[in-house]
Batch of 2 targets.
Target 1
Amino acid sequence: MRRHSGLAAVLIAVSLPLAALPCLEAAGADGARELAQASVRGGQSLAYASALTAIGPRLTGSASYQRAADWSAEQFRALGLAHTILEPFTIDRGWERVSARARLVAPADRALHVAALGWTPSTPEGGFDADVVAVDSFSPSAVAANQALHGRIALLPDGDPSGNPETAARTRRDFAVALRAAGVLAMISPDTDAANEISARGFGFGTAIAVLPAAQIGRDDAGMIRRLLARGAVRMSLELINRITPAAASVDNVIADLPGSDRSDEWVVVGAHLDAWDFGAGAQDNATGAAMVLEAARAIAALKAPPRRSIRFALWGGEEQGQIGSSAYIRSHASELDHVVAYLNTDAGTGPIIGWTAPGREEVIRAVRPLTQDVLRDLGAASFDDSLRYAFQSDGAAFILAGIPTLDLNADDTKYEEIHHKAADTMDRVDAHNLAIAAAAVAATAYAIADAPGRIGARQRPRTKRMD
């Protein structure tokens, strides 16, 4: 059900429970509450998200990503944030899909639903025909013992290898190397969605090009191939054409600073990823998150006086390939991280907002709750938890590993997978009401933490691995 009937309805619905305050000079909790009301009434989050999706898919390293980065920097500067920069980081290769086709050649002739997996090579020009062999596990040793793989296309097992995302990615890389050594020509990986719908994704984390051409194939098509293999040989035609840079590529994070009033050497960082997979417009993943960061900057910059601490607004590249941009930031700013009071991340779409998650940091919740409870209660977003469920699935991961108190915006994601990485991730699926509420919560929480008398938590000892 679409509920984005425009900001006018949002303003009426949201402003009713918020107490009317006469000006934007109050500090602390009252200031955060007032800031939220001003953000809802005059917020631009819907306009920001619409403009970003109009730029188009923002695949890391692509021309459209760079247009989005340039546009975002212009918006920050227009708000008066003079210290706005494009901060580059390097990826192994730039990659973009051009075309993909596949057909079943025998025992029947029919088109198949396929798309290249991100950061994988093309097939030889013109593609090829080859028999298909189903592989039962992601075990490299089992591959080495399988003589039937030479000159074939390998149909991979459903799902991902076991373990956390980093472990699974390593297993996939080792598995692909084993397949190539066994003489496999290409890999096809079953998607998880019904009706042959395909979600954009890579073969694993990172931007190094995989060792074999690889494609996603619709789940129903994969099931049909397995049934046919049970009765005899299956042959298919496959052609994948991708555009790959000849060398490493530079990608820009967007960084904009709002100096604090009397503790300007301490920072609250508010961030979201700007990049998006390329099937759709990347509206909820993550134009809306980037829009919340821009709206927080607009709302706080409009105050007559800034909060005590500085706020750094950041839009990251490379999140979809394994939080590359935010991790690069942590490395390049390592000497400054003791001055980072908190990191706030928004990458949750526009389901009804729940509140904030502080992964593994119950003491951070105890410190933030009294600073924000009134405004978040008014917004219907006063729930906190310290779950690790999504801790390492977005750009908060690099900050958590660096020991920095991290808050991740938490929203109801019941329907999120319906559009996640799909062509359906467009503006007409964005809920403007929830977007305005979430943007106000981000702005108010960032302000409250930046203006608090003390820090919300100590920096912990940095980690090299994710928490269990």
Target 2
Amino acid sequence: MLYFIPTPIGNLEDITQRSLRLLLNTPLIFCEDTRVAKRLINLLKERFSQSDNVEQKFIPLHSHNEQKVIDSLSADIFSATNAAFVSDAGMPCISDPGALLVQFAQKNNIPYEVLPGANALLLALVSSGFGETNFYFHGFLPHKKEAREKELNRLLSLTCNVVLYESTHRILKLSKELVSIAADRESFFIKEATKMYEKRFFGTTEEIYVKLQNSNLNGEWVVVLKGSAKESGEALSIDDISNLSIPNKQKAKLLSKMTGKSVKEWYDTLSYKQ
């Protein structure tokens, strides 16, 4: 059997009894970082007074080598012993590797099971209080400026709540970018969820940006953006905007936000049609 085991995102007590039992008794462990996995298992043994039960082998499987490791695997390995995959924290396959291993199990008829457990995006979504059944999980934004700006504009146009992950080094940048696009959008920021220094921020993107400038930003962040207000009537189409009596430059900016194409592309297209 191949198990996909979620690990605590901060507080060790958030691990389930079944996850603990399997994690300590599975001989073969695939993991993002062998050092992190070994340290976690040692901490769990210490916290829950567990002793060594089996000799464990650890195989690194992360975003940079996932395909290579999968290609080297034989299905026979999993018929000979139980195995597990764990990411550094949280649920495997959610902004973490593991999906290719799931696919490998499916293609080779290997029995597998995904255990429920800690997950930062759901914790943040519930903590935001924004409600709504539908939401959009994006994970980490692109790093390059143009791609990042396009994606943020698209996400902020959605009527459902949006959940993002962000690192310590980019959280202030993200906050500033959000203010430049939608300063009054209701938002919720949380850092170091379930850990000792967990901190939550509520308010508009502009209010949160002010708070962040005087705060300790160290830690992993989750951001929840409230969905844009639903408009009554039919949405504007590309033709509607193209026919507006406004300068082409303004039309191009509006069309760029709608479609993701650059302002220059739309400006050239509109100028050509005239």
